[in-house]
Design a protein that fits this description.
single chain; 281 residues; alpha/beta; TIM Barrel; 38% helix; 15% strand; globular; disordered N terminus
């Protein structure tokens, strides 16, 4: 059994929520689990509690709120009262308080607002999550954003600082988004940065055409291109943890193995410099 390594977070976005992958994760030392209220058709919390009530206490668990069942498709809301009720519901469904609650893609409700209105709406939503943490409904709170650019337009430096900022990570994230994320987290004074979706939604063909292994220091023990892409994602942007989905225990074990590789940060810096130069040309 490997020692626990909190840098890899098992994400359940596309997971079948089967017990075997949770057991495999614990056997591999993966003790961080990330889900969200709308995952698995808004059944993620309840299914986890039903299928693995004895395993859940062994994980640090993060979840997300902000999407709600609607007519035909999920609707997004930053209404503080709805967010508070969603956090309380998550704790009931999970039969435990989540360790971290993240505001789920707040940009979805900000894109049509003025900067001032967006700041007020985002501020009230962040205050609702900060209050939930203060009241013991979770240990920490944060923001999970697929596209951080709208957040950078609302003056987050005047808002409560999140404990966690969860953002897209890896080679498939464009330089504009990487730059915006860096500026945002510095302005917001976020505690930790977590990455997500390091493989860009599972497009495996990318790694047939692009080899990221030169971004690892030698020797890298024969790691695959996918393993190298995952390991380097911790530096695109710099992140303390990366959430990745895996329903196959073998795939999960390969990702855990990749954590032992060392990234060539000079190569990453050169890569980012080249991206900036290509954008300006």
């Amino acid at each position: 059994m490997h020692g626990a390594d909190p840098r890899l977070v098992l994400g359940l976005h596309r997971s079948r929520h089967h017990r075997d992958i949770l057991t495999a994760a614990l056997d591999l030392g993966v003790t961080a689990l990330d889900t969200a209220a709308p995952y698995l058709g808004f059944r993620s919390h309840a299914v986890l509690a039903e299928t693995a009530p004895d395993l859940l206490p062994q994980f640090t668990l993060s979840t997300k709120v902000g999407f709600f069942p609607g007519a035909g498709e999920a609707e997004h809301s930053l209404d503080p009262s709805r967010l508070r009720l969603a956090i309380e519901k998550a704790a009931r469904e999970l039969s435990r308080e989540p360790d971290t609650v993240l505001l789920h893609n707040p940009e979805r409700s900000l894109t049509s607002l003025s900067p001032a209105d967006g700041q007020a709406l985002l501020g009230s939503a962040c205050t609702a999550l900060a209050d939930a943490a203060r009241d013991g409904l979770c240990r920490t709170w944060g923001v999970s954003s697929w596209d951080t650019r709208p957040l950078g337009m609302v003056g987050v430096d005047a808002l409560p600082s999140p404990d966690v900022l969860m953002v897209r990570a890896g080679f498939l994230v464009g330089i504009d988004l990487l730059d915006t994320t860096t500026v945002l987290r510095n302005a917001w004074q976020a505690g930790e940065t977590w990455g997500m979706s390091p493989f860009g939604g599972g497009n495996g063909k990318v790694w047939e055409d692009f080899d990221p292994r030169p971004f690892l220091r030698q020797p890298h023990d024969g790691l695959s291109r996918v393993q190298a892409a995952f390991r380097t994602a911790f530096h695109l942007p710099s992140a303390a943890a990366v959430a990745v989905g895996a329903d196959d225990p073998t795939h999960l074990a390969q990702l855990v193995q990749a954590l032992g590789a060392e990234v060539d940060t000079a190569a990453v810096s050169q890569y980012l410099w080249a991206l900036h130069g290509h954008r300006q040309s």
